[in-house]
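Archive entry: two folds, one per protein. Generate the first.
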Amino acid sequence: MADKRSGIPKRKHRLSTTMTGLLVCAAALTASWCAQAEEHNDFMKYIAGPMYDGPIAEPKLRTAQDREFARNIQDGAAVNEVTFASHYILWTFDCGHNDNCMRVFALDAKTGNVYWFPYIVRELAIVDDNTPTDFRSDSRLLVVNGKPDGQPRGRYRYLFENGKFRLLDKQAGR
């Protein structure tokens, strides 16, 4: 049965629409794959040293902030597995009074020292894995999607070195 205006059989027209849809889908998948490969390369640029596989040190609660959030630090230590920068446990937890805000720290599995992310992150943006952060156990790169105190909402990339999170770059509006 042909379309009255074009004379093209409907089946072919549907096939053409289907092919267009498949091509668009293939292009989107390729773009997604390329973005993931680029993101993987970003983490590889900041590879940390050899993975620590020893016992997790008892957390040292040295500062007022450490003592205030001792329970959260103990929860992070209970993970009992290095999750960041080869010998740290990166831990995030909500602020308690606002579900759309989080605090972040890195616990040194070797020494028990606690290193706080310098900002409370607000207006969190959830990414592919349902978290507002992205990090790897073998990389010193931390990606935060949200609004660090006083900053515009966006995607922020930090390098963890010498116990501090240093801003590498930001993409506003994400």
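Generate the second and append.
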Amino acid sequence: KTRWDESHIEPDIKEGDLVCVSKVHFRNISSNPKFRDFFIEPFLVLRLVGMNAVEVAPHGPFSRRHPVFPVSLIEIYGKKMI
């Protein structure tokens, strides 16, 4: 645990930020996975759900999805995204 504490960085996500969500669990996006982007378009953060989850405002084709995602699948928009 001490090794994890030394290298752990708390996510710097606040309400009102724009974030991109990882497409890891989105299986219904039809295209070749080799050429697909890793992250979905930016969404607005509505609120933080505890320390490990974020509620976003989904729009467009993603509006029917559940709006809460873990911070491990979130990247701040504008940061270097793979």
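Annotation attached to the second fold: The chain has one domain: 2-76. Strands lie at 18-22, 39-49, 53-57, 68-70, 74-76.
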